[in-house]
Each structure stands twice: as C-alpha cells, then as structure tokens.
Amino acid sequence: MNRFEYTNGHCMPNEKTLRRDNNIRLYDGEVRTNFEGGELTITTHRLIYRTSNVCFSLSLSLIIYFEEEYPGPLFFTRSPKIKLHLTEPPRDKQPGPLDNSLHSYVKLSFKNGLSPAFVENLSEVIHNRLWEIIPLSIGVSPSSVQGSNSNMLRNPPPIKPRTGIIGIERNLKEQQRATDESINVAFQDLRKLMGMAKDMVNISRTISAKIRERQGDITEDETVRFKSYLMSLGIDDPVTRDAYKSSNEYYKQLGRQLAEILEEPIKEVGGMMALTDVYCRVNRARGLELLSPEDLLHACKQLSDLNLSIMLRTFDSGVMVIQSVSHNDVEVADAVSQLIKDRGSITATELAQSEGISVVLACERLFMTEKYGKACRDDSIEALRFYPNLFLEEE
Amino acid sequence: MTEIDWPWQYSFPPFFTLQPHAETKVKQIEAWKHLVINYFHNTNQFILDVREVHNGPLFYNSAIDRKLSPEIVLIILEELAKSGHAIPLDKIKQRWIVSWHTLEEWSDIIYSWAQSNGFIGSVCTFYELREGDNTTDQEFYGIDNDLLVRALKILENSNRAELIIFDDNEGVKFF
Predict the structure, then answer these.
(1) ipTM of the modeled complex
(2) Which residues of chain B lie closer than 8 angstroms to A370, CB-CB?
C-alpha cells in the first residue's frame, strides 16, 4: 500500500472524474486497514480514496492488472473485492499512508456490493492509458497538500525503521541492490574493454594489409618487427562460445582455428607441442575471450575428425600433445637414435636442451625411440640415461 | 681364481637396467645367462645366494658403478632354471645351485668316467668323486655335494647306480 500518495482530493486540470463508489474498505495485501467506509473515485488518471478525515490517491499507471475476488459460498457475510496488483512505487513518490508496506497489491472491499459497471469502468480506464497521452499537468506537491489538508498533521509520514527484523531485511535488500549495481558496472567496463579489443583487431588487420601492399617498399627488418607487433596483438576475430549454439559446433570451429594458428609454431618446434604449451600459446594469442582448459581439450579431441593439419595424441604415459599430421614417429626415432649414437648416451634433459623442446616431450621422444628398439635405458640414481641399443645391434 | 673374460655388455650401463623393450630384454637376459654360467664355470662356484649378489664382481661392476638389482638376478635365475642350469635350494628361492652343465649332463659325465676307468660294479665315496686322486683331471672335481647327489640320483633312477649310505660316509655303486 506504499504506492498511495496524499492528495487534496480535487481533480487536476487534465483529469476527469468517471465514477464514485461508497462504503469501501482498503486492504494492504491481505491485511485489513483502518481505512473503511471511504469513497473511491475513478478518474482518468488516478484512483482517489477519501474518508471523512483523510484523502489519498493511487496513480493508475502503477496498476499492472486487477482481478475480482468473490467470497466463497460459505462466507456470505464477506464483501466482494477487487485485487489490484501494483508495480514498484516511483522514486519521486509523494508521502502517503503506510509508506513502509511490503505488499505489492491492495484490495478494495465493496461493502455495498460490487457493481459490474465499476469493473467495466476500471478496465476501460486502465486500457485507455490516458495518462500517457495527457499527463497530469501539475505534480501533487506536498506543500499544497499540507496547506489544503490539515488532516496531514494527524498522519505524519512514517519514519523508515532501522531496527527489528524489517530493518535488517531492508538493510540486506539494500546491500544486495548495491552489489548488483556494482557488478553491472564492472561488466560494463569489461564490455568496453572488449569493444576496445575489437578496435585493436581492426588495427592489426589494417597493419597486416599494409604490409602485404608494400611488400617491396619496406625492409625485411621492418616487416619482421611489424609481424611481431601483430603477434603481440593476438589473433583477429577469436571464435567465441556465444556465437555458437551447440557446443559441438563451437568445438569444431575452435579446432579449425587451432589448426590455423598452431600449424606454423608446431612445425617450428619439431612437429609436436605439449597440450600445456598449446593452452598458454592460444590464450596468449586470444588475449581476451580466454579458453578454459576443458574447452581446449574438447576442441583438440575434435581435431582428428576434421582432417586438419594437426591432431591430438596421447602417449602411453598419459601426456597429451598436439602434433602435425605429417609428423612421423619413425623419422623422429631415427633422428633421436642418431643423436644418441653421436653423443654416446643422452638424458631427457640433454635432449630437451639440444632440440629446444620441453623435457616432457624429450622424455616421450626417448621412450618412443626405445619402443622402436633403437635405444636402451640405464636407470641409475643419477638419471634415466639412454644408450644406443647395442643389445640388438651388436649381433 | 681364473681371470674372467668379461663380455662387452658388462661395461655397458644399460646392461644393469631391465629393458622394457621386449626384443631387447630377451637379448639382455640371454647375455646375462651366458655371463652367469661362464662366471660360475671359471670361478668353479656352484652356490648363488640372492641376498649376497653384490658381494662379488658378477652383479656389481664397480668400474662403472652399476649394480644389478636382486629382482633382476632372480629373473635370470628363473630363466636359467628353465634350461636346467639353476636349481633353487629353498622355497623362498634365495639360495640357488648354478651349474654350467645340466643334471643329465653331469650324470652322463660321471657315468662315462666310471665306465672308462673301470669303476662299474664297485663303490666310490662321494669324497673320492669330488676330491679323490682319480678325478683331479675331471670336470666334476670339486663339484658341489648337493649337485653331485642330484646327478647320482638320476643315475639311480635309470638303474645305472645305487646310492649307499654307510657310517658317516656316503657312496655310490655303479652298475
């Protein structure tokens, strides 16, 4: 019932009175109030309720809808009621009775019986929404209300309670709203940042286009430098999840993009890259719109079905790598075994250093070479060292 | 003690790690079997205790600081047992007889010695066989007692000899 405002009961210039009903009691939600036997006026803009000593109004714009409530057959003493469902009170609401009410609806109880014409009039006036076309010209200022209606003094506007359960609840609500707002603001910032990122992407596009145009004009050095700028800017047009409805399609698309951006780097590091490195590289390239490890893994699992230049491979040890399709185990094993022969023996760390790959990958390469019978191991306290497989070669 | 002619594998560190690659492992175990038999033959030893494998140079190459773990020693012994070159002496398989001949080979060697030296029909004590003047040039000179008994039992089973126990001495009669 906190949507009502005190008023002097006179019609505003743009307002027309449509109907008056008597002997009406107000309910705040389901709670019976002391406002009874009053007169209810329907105007084109408001409902005005007047008793002998107080008068207040409810703007029709606050009514979402209304419904009739007839008493059941067992309660023939009860009066028919109209239930008005209301929106939130406006910020600039003038003071009214029961301003601290929590109910979002009020009831009008018709002691003298409910005339069907009332319902008709009410629905018509709500339907017409005249307040949107011709607003009430003058706001109901509290001073004029006070001046014209001395009853105000007997009903001072209630003070917002700070104690008790209602006070606590109110505080909590307040806090929640504040948090909500700050979150919204934060996300707005993020969105702005992403908007900026799109601009960056555009810049990178123009730079790359210019490089292509002026292939001959600028020196090799400059081209390289520009390219490194582009690299640090990231990839253009990252595939993002919300663009795809089914996650399967998303993974496939992501897989294609992975193939695009990883093909070259993988070749550079010798045809194979550990999944952790892939994860870091891809997310560094994306900058924003980061991938979760899970999404990346799913996308990688799609690679083999897509006939791309790279594929996911899981070693016996459980280590997962992305390798180029052209990668040939036998060739690698041969190369490694040749290296072992040249050096006499090698550990994973040494191989990692000489080939510029991670230790995990070096380890896998050695195991693979061993699996092809081209190396044998010496597992001592110092390290796991690999030797040429003299057992098989000596005879 | 004779100088051992160590094979090249002995100074090859991977020799002391069990190889996971199946084919390599076969070769590795094979090489170990050879080495173990050769070593026992050359040093004229018969008993191997798994608990003491690192006391001698066979399973511990101090030059390259590599030891063969007792587990792998056991694997090799099991392999040797399959070809009759090793026999466990206890149930927990810690003490083993290792010999360069199988029991059948030993029994044949002893019987043919008895035949060619005219001992058919007569009795020899174990001591005479193992350390007697007549056998100094024989391969079974200094043979382990357990191994000798097992070899002679094979002869007994094929009715070519009979084990006789008299007083403190044990002997065998060849037929």
Answers:
(1) 0.78
(2) 20-21
